[in-house]
UniProtKB/TrEMBL annotation:
This is Protein LURP-one-related 14-like. InterPro entries: LOR, LOR_sf, Tubby-like_C. It comes from the Eukaryota. It comes from Arabis alpina. PANTHER family: PROTEIN LURP-ONE-RELATED 14-RELATED (PTHR31087:SF17), PTHR31087. SUPFAM superfamilies: Tubby C-terminal domain-like. It holds the Pfam family LOR. Transmembrane segments: none annotated. Belongs to the LOR family.
Length: 210
């Protein structure tokens, strides 16, 4: 693991597997994410590799007080389920493997770092950390947002993924408010891209109030 500040996760660093080892690649990945508004309450995300192969698809509620999103593989099998925890001062999500709600299947929890902020900032707690009630140390931290195309994900001080890392985006305020736009996510080597995509989708929901 990188020890210096403002470093990036690189080839040779330990794998960061949260959802599953099969989502960790030994090389950097640039993923294309397409979001499309389906109706008043639902939308869809599709994630493609640089060759145009479908890797992930995420369905769920675009609006409402109790968001639920399901990530599936290209064949339609459920990988994980994201659920927003009601109305709280700080938005909070719990992510479970498959369609489960059981505590033993919890993968990680995402919570806003601050209740009120002009810049989206969230802390991520893995299941084993989340179960320690007195722990205030998060496993990952993410900040930024799609609207300014600068969202980045860190493990300690090491950058592991982000939106806006030297790639071209098809993004306009008009398409953003209509709920239809594309963006690219750069994932560093050995980083679980399913985990990164789930995190970015939850943050996108938090920002999408046009």
């Amino acid at each position: 693991m990188p020890k210096n500040k403002k470093t990036e996760w690189q080839v040779g660093d330990p794998a960061i597997s949260v959802v599953g080892d099969q989502f960790c690649n030994p090389y950097p990945m640039d993923l294309l994410v397409k979001r499309k508004f389906q109706n008043f309450s639902k939308d869809n995300y599709q994630v493609y590799d640089p060759s145009g192969n479908l890797l992930l698809q995420i369905d769920g509620q675009a609006w409402g007080f109790s968001h639920k999103r399901v990530m599936r593989d290209p064949a339609g099998f459920t990988i994980l389920t994201m659920r927003q925890k009601g109305i709280t001062l700080k938005n909070k999500w719990e992510v479970h493997g498959g369609e489960s709600k059981e505590k033993e299947d919890l993968l990680f929890t995402v919570q806003q770092s601050q209740a009120v902020s002009l810049k989206t900032s969230v802390d991520v707690f893995l299941a084993e950390n989340n179960n320690v009630k007195k722990s205030n140390t998060c496993d990952f931290h993410a900040s930024g947002g799609y609207s300014n195309i600068s969202f980045k994900v860190f493990k300690s001080d090491a950058l592991i993924a982000g939106v806006g890392l030297g790639v071209t985006h098809k993004f306009t305020w008009g398409s953003f408010c209509k709920g239809k736009y594309n963006f690219r996510v750069s994932v560093n080597p050995e980083v679980d891209y399913a985990f990164i995509i789930a995190l970015l989708v939850m943050v996108d929901d938090n920002e999408n109030w046009c």
